[in-house]
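$ ./design --mode recover --in tokens.txt
reading tokens...
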């Protein structure tokens, strides 16, 4: 019997195909999704991975067998699926493994209005149902339903998605910008031409061909090596800005005119300022901004300077969305370049964040590096991954090493965060891989490097 705990993570399903999961399990997930959400209709979409169409169709068949009508929007970005869930007011399922290598696939699920399905909001129940239907010989038998067979129909939501985004950020009046875009052979190659076409933007496309084998580089812009091509292109063509999307195009990384990465924390602060101003213009006295615990100290500082309230939360889209719903936050940002908008059903959309940056850049004559300088106040390591055999033991060893340090505090909201007056670091176990993820920030570069190297020596020792 497959160990579903290995593929059902904190906020999605993710594993290798076909050894960890396949169409039979996808069909069972579809049936379980309908039962847990009590859905009479759902919407599904998928990315460009070779296994995505068949897995998505099997899920749809499982859902229809339980009596739910299924609207398939086909090839789409994850935020396009969230748009469809919001617009159609239907639970949704997106088939993607985001930035993971080609042999992986997964499911990101949501309730109607793009409300998240995570471990505390239905994902455990879905897993337990599928487990109950899976025999020791790996056969999956889903019980029948008294409901009539649901229908499976197709619907194109790309243009409505583009129209919605352009209704939220008006780029028609900005100065003309040259924009290099690296889609990484992912879904950005599908959405960028429609969303940004016809605007005062000269798009320089890179790797727009949809190819789930990722022939050029992994579609994971969090890894610096995957930004090298875009950085070179920005310098080569004299672009004003570079944009790098991950595989399912729900994240966007930004490169300035020098070819240097702009930290997601700086982008979070920049967009927060714009969203605070808009919310205040609409009469909100103290709008709320969400940030996860790995974003820079700069983010809460900037938000407070612009009259906003900050809420710190753990990493992961389902947790951010829950906090946004609870607090009514107008915007949320993560260190991993996930950006969440109240006007987008509290869902994450890299495209909308990119449009905000383009709007801010195009509304003034200066460079992007000058524009973002005020949002980059501290020395940061970026996220550093270490493969380990025992995540808990390595974390405990780091804790022991810093436990005796003066003026140090610990918190365990998500992983372990260790904070001193001049620095902080977070060490967090990956939900999807055997990794420990380290982020360090300090007031001075030398201090950041010292703390970073000290922690890594213990983690990798």
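writing sequence...
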């Amino acid at each position: 019997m497959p160990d579903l705990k290995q593929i059902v993570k904190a906020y999605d399903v993710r594993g290798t195909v076909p050894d960890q999961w396949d169409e039979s399990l996808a069909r069972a997930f579809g049936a379980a999704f309908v039962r847990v959400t009590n859905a009479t209709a759902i919407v599904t979409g998928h990315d460009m991975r070779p296994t995505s169409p068949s897995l998505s169709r099997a899920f749809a068949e499982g859902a229809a067998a339980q009596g739910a009508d299924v609207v398939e929007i086909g090839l789409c970005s994850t935020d396009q699926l969230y748009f469809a869930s919001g617009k159609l007011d239907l639970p949704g399922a997106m088939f993607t493994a985001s930035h993971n290598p080609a042999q992986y696939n997964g499911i990101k699920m949501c309730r109607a209005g793009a409300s998240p399905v995570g471990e505390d909001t239905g994902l455990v129940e879905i897993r337990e149902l599928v487990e109950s239907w899976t025999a020791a010989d790996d056969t999956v038998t889903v019980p029948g339903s008294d409901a009539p067979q649901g229908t499976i129909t197709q619907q194109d939501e790309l243009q409505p998605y583009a129209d919605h985004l352009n209704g939220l950020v008006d780029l028609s009046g900005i100065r003309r910008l040259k924009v290099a875009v690296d889609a990484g052979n992912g879904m950005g190659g599908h959405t960028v031409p429609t969303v940004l076409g016809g605007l005062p933007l000269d798009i320089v496309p890179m790797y727009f061909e949809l190819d789930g084998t990722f022939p050029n580089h992994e579609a994971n812009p969090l890894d610096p090596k995957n930004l090298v091509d875009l950085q070179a292109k920005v310098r080569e063509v004299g672009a004003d800005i570079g944009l790098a999307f991950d595989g399912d195009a729900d994240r966007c990384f930004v490169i300035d005119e020098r070819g240097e990465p702009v930290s997601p924390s700086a982008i979070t602060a920049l967009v927060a300022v714009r969203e605070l101003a808009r919310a205040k213009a609409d009469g909100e006295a103290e709008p709320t901004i969400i940030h996860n615990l790995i974003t820079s100290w700069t983010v809460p500082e900037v938000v407070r300077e612009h009259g906003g309230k900050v809420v710190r939360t753990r990493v992961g889209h389902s947790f951010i969305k829950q906090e946004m719903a609870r607090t009514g936050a107008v915007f949320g940002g993560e260190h991993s370049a996930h950006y969440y908008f109240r006007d987008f059903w509290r869902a994450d959309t890299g495209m909308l964040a990119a449009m905000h940056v383009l709007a801010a850049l195009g509304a003034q004559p200066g460079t992007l590096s000058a524009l973002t300088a005020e949002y980059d106040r501290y020395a940061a390591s970026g996220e550093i991954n270490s493969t380990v055999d025992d995540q808990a033991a390595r974390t405990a060893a780091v804790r022991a090493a810093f436990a005796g340090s003066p003026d140090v505090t610990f918190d365990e909201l998500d992983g372990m965060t260790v904070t001193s007056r001049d620095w902080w670091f977070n060490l967090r176990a990956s939900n999807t891989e055997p990794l420990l993820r380290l982020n360090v920030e300090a007031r001075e570069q030398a201090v950041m490097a010292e703390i970073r190297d000290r922690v890594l020596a213990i983690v990798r020792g």
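exit 0
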